[in-house]
Write a structure and sequence with these properties.
Layout: E1 27-31, E2 37-39, E3 43-52, E4 56-57, E5 64-69, E6 72-77, E7 79-80, E8 86-92, E9 97-104, E10 111-113, E11 117-120, H1 136-146, H2 149-152, H3 177-185, H4 205-215
Helix pairs in contact: 1-4, 3-4
Length: about 220
Amino acid sequence: MKFRLTHAIPLVVAVPLLAWAMPGGWAVITVDDLPERITAGQPVELAFMIRQHGMTPMEDLKPVVTARAGDRDVRAHAAPTGKPGHYAARLTMPREGDWRITIDSDFGDSRVTLLPLRAAAAGSRNGNGAPHVTPPWERGRQLFVAKGCVTCHVHRDIEGANAYPVGPDLTERRFAADYLAMYLADPSIRPPTGGNRMPDLGLSRAEITALVAFLNGDRAGR
């Protein structure tokens, strides 16, 4: 992806995708590296960061991670990783199926439930023999939740979005793709508006591509 800004793109389109001006006891949970698929019977590590009001790394918490599929659940306590505000937990899904993972931050009622992740048998592939690959729009939808955007923004393609009303409804908004990619990679390119600003989430190029596809409603190849 080329991160190119053209003259036709006004800065006003750069609405903060995560805004953090509301006071109070709440936090945003950001998953470091969301797996696209997990393997049943094999441990998977889920690492994440907890920021008060989306900005300040939170230490000395005791987060709990729970995965559920039907009548089965798996629970693990997350431990600090040594990086400020970062924790990690290891879980093993005992069987194939769609698992919903909830991360409880141990800070007030701040928690997030990820969109379902598929646990498949070892070596499982698509019908054409290729490894499973999540289309960009759907991957972006998963990341919108996992990266914490869901905490502050409404999006009708995601149930339960906007736990704290500090950001705009993004359902119908569309952005110049190059600018949006640049902004997600480096939010400092646009000054804060009204005290709200977006933190640098350290997104990878692949994560940015998927989020741009989702936010711009680009379902091509889904």
